[in-house]
Design brief:
This protein is α+β, with helices and mostly antiparallel strands. The chain folds into 3 domains: 83 residues, Butyryl-Coa Dehydrogenase, subunit A, domain 1 (Orthogonal Bundle), CATH 1.10.540; 111 residues, Butyryl-CoA Dehydrogenase, subunit A, domain 2; 147 residues, Butyryl-CoA Dehydrogenase, subunit A, domain 3 (Up-down Bundle), CATH 1.20.140.10. 47% of the residues lie in helices and 14% in strands. The protein is built from 13 helices and 10 strands. α5 packs across α7, α8 runs antiparallel to α9 and α9 packs antiparallel against α10. 37% of the residues are buried. The structure holds flavin-adenine dinucleotide. Flavin-adenine dinucleotide (FAD) binds next to β1 and α13.
Length: 398
């Protein structure tokens, strides 16, 4: 196993760094690196810059617009994006439905949807979870009944991230109520502007509206918008979830937070001294840094195996558990490091264009918003308890 980077890899790293230094808009970087949700207009502007560079979908096959980067180059790029505070494209199009479409979709679907994902014409959201179906997703109840060349869809999705911005939703629907749970599900691509779709906002603990409920009331969806075979949607759904979990460790973002904490510790004062001299605080930071290093080497080990052609079973679950726990510990410590300046919740001020000044230093604006939002990291993408179940089954054979 070789964990060192070649000269070509190092040259590639410099190329990515230079691109980000010259092309990443400052307003995009500012929102993202403070841990705030990047507004849609800024996110789309950044995605168009990435598309112009040909870097919108590095993992896609070259024939559909991918970059042809090696596994190592993809890793390096992800690290550079994280270090420089550059958001990756919204995952719902590029990382989720895109690969499902080019792997299982019809030629017509590939020709129509893939270019629209690359040039950010479509904003996708994910319609999997329902009020009674989260971890036990196969119990979903939203129904699609065939009527000529259409399905008629009725039911409800919930926790649909950014549905209010989306013009497309990929949905799991039940097309056979008599089959075993996993065997009666189909995968539909639905235009959010179809009559009968209603979106209701859900405000999270971070006071923001990233989550939604989506209701389907006699919504007509052309049969040609079904991906793959009828009642085989579970296969495509699982394929998509596998992609989702493998990108969730977020080592580079966590490293950036560690560096930020070290900077803050040199400035913030506590009990008459600097935070950097507070042994208890520095011990907590050092412990997280050690755990993060272990996670990084685990990820690199997996990378080396992936480059050698190995397919994974429970490994992404391990990365998800450790990565999200570290994210939560770091943002908690960030808020702690700010003392009373960590308490105000300032994010909405930015979105509303308020011009009153924040009470604390610049770096205090953002961590609370991020800390609150990331409570969800151990829930979304399959809860950490479910990941532990996967590990116990796949690795321990329980
Ligand atoms: C911020 C955020 C964004 C999201 N975005 C989307 C989205 O865009 N689209 C979408 O479709 N969904 C989305 N989700 C939903 C997410 O996928 C679900 O919340 C998740 O799968 C858990 O389902 P649930 O909320 O129904 O909890 P439940 O499945 O009801 O679980 C409740 C608790 O019980 C535990 N539990 C359940 N089953 C088991 C078991 N077998 N063994 C051990 N413990 C168990 C869980 O770990 C959890 O702690 C999002 C969620 C969040 C928080």
């Amino acid at each position: 196993m070789d964990l060192s980077f070649s000269d070509e890899d190092l040259a590639f790293k410099a190329e990515v760094r230079e691109f980000l230094e010259t092309k990443l808009p400052e307003d995009v970087r500012s929102y993202y690196s403070r841990g705030m949700h990047v507004p849609k207009e800024l996110q789309v502007r950044w995605q168009k810059i990435l598309h112009e560079q040909g870097w919108m979908a590095p993992a896609w096959p070259v024939e559909y617009g991918g970059t042809g980067w090696t596994v190592t180059q993809r890793y390096i790029a992800a690290q550079e994006f994280g270090t420089m505070g550059a958001p990756t494209p919204m995952p719902f199009g590029v990382s989720m439905v895109g690969p499902v479409i080019y792997t299982f979709g019809s030629q017509e679907q590939k020709d129509y949807y893939l270019p629209r994902i690359l040039n950010s014409e479509d904003w996708w959201c994910q319609g999997y979870s329902e009020p009674g179906s989260g971890s036990d997703l196969a119990s979903l109840q939203t129904k699609a009944v065939r009527d000529g060349d259409d399905y008629i869809v009725n039911g409800q999705k919930i926790w649909t991230s950014y549905a209010q911005h989306a013009n497309m939703i990929f949905c799991l629907v039940r097309t056979d109520s008599n089959a075993k749970a996993q065997e009666g599900i189909s995968f539909l691509l639905i235009d959010m502007n179809t009559p009968g779709i209603t979106i209701k906002p859900i405000y999270g603990i971070d006071k923001e509206n990233t989550l939604n409920e989506v209701f389907f009331d006699d919504v007509r969806v052309p049969v040609k918008n079904r991906v793959g075979e009828e009642n085989k949607g579970w296969t495509y759904a699982k394929f998509l979830l596998g992609n989702e979990r493998s990108t969730i460790a977020r080592v580079a973002q966590s490293k950036r937070r560690v560096n930020k904490l070290k900077e803050i510790a040199k400035t913030e004062r506590v009990d008459g001294g600097l935070l950097a001299d507070d042994k208890d605080f520095m011990r907590k930071l050092a412990q997280i840094e050690v755990d993060l290093m272990a996670l990084e080497y685990t990820e690199l080990r997996m990378l080396s195996q992936e480059a050698a052609g190995k397919r994974f079973t429970a490994e992404p679950s391990l990365l998800k558990i450790k990565g999200t726990e570290i994210q939560q510990r770091l943002t908690e410590l960030l808020v702690e490091s700010l003392g009373m300046y960590g308490a105000p919740y300032e994010a909405m001020g930015d979105y509303e264009g308020r011009n009153d000044t924040a009470p604390g230093p610049d770096y205090a604006n953002g961590p609370m918003a991020e800390h609150l939002y990331l409570r969800a990291a151990t829930i979304y993408g399959g809860t950490n308890e479910i990941q532990r179940n996967i590990i116990s089954k796949m690795v321990l054979g329980l």
